[in-house]
Amino acid sequence: MLLGSWLWLFFFDLIVPIWSFLLIAAWRERDCTLAELMRLSVTDPLTGALNRLGFLDRVSASVAQARRHGQRTAVITFDIDHFKAINDGHDHAAGDDVLR
Predict the structure, then answer these.
(1) Is 38 domain-assigned?
(2) Which structural domain, as residue segments, surrounds residue 60?
(3) Percent of the chain at pLDDT above 70?
(4) How far is CA 86 from CA 47, 91, 100, in A?
(5) How far is residue 45's CA from residue 39's CA, in Å, rounded to a whole number?
(6) Is 78 exposed, middle or buried (0-12, 13-18, 19+ CB in 10 A)?
(7) Quick one: 74 and 94 in the same domain?
(8) 5-29 pLDDT per residue, tens
(9) Mean pLDDT to the nearest integer, 67-80
(10) Are 65 and 91 contained in the same domain?
(11) How far is CA 46 from the centre of its chain?
(12) Of 1, 2, 71, 94, whose CB count within 10 A is highest?
């Protein structure tokens, strides 16, 4: 009987707290990984700017908010003329620097 009570105490006093700590650490790591995946799914890794998916989500939310409040909204875009010439003439690293 004495051995059984020691095993019981060992299990609940040592194993359960360690297991709980490891489980909480795994949940935190999972949450951080999911947050990073969500960020990567809507941004360009080179510039950090919104990609098409992120842009469309942001525009949809913005237009819906403007309609709800009776406000106007605008979208501004820009284009770099002859960007291919930068990549071809200087290399892709230079083109990446221009984009950043």
Answers:
(1) yes
(2) 52-100
(3) 96
(4) 17, 7, 14
(5) 10
(6) exposed
(7) yes
(8) 777 777 777 788 888 999 999 999 9
(9) 87
(10) yes
(11) 14
(12) 94
For 43-61, the DSSP string reads B-TTT--B-HHHHHHHHHH
Query: 48 — alpha (psi -120 to 50), left (phi > 0) or beta?
Result: left
Summary mean pLDDT of the chain: 87
Round to whole Å and give the CA distance between 94 and 91: 6
pLDDT tens string 80-100 = 888 888 888 888 888 888 888
Shared domain check, 61 and 37? no
Q: Minimal CA–CA distance to 60: which of 43, 44, 73? A: 73
Task: Report if residue 30 sits inside a domain.
Answer: yes
- Let me know if residue 47 belongs to a domain: no
**Claim to verify: residue 28 and residue 70 sit in the same structural domain:** no
Say if residue 2's pLDDT is above 70.
no
Instruction: Take residue 59 and report the two structure tokens written for it.
Output: 């525009």
For 50, list phi and psi in degrees, rounded to 5: -60, 140
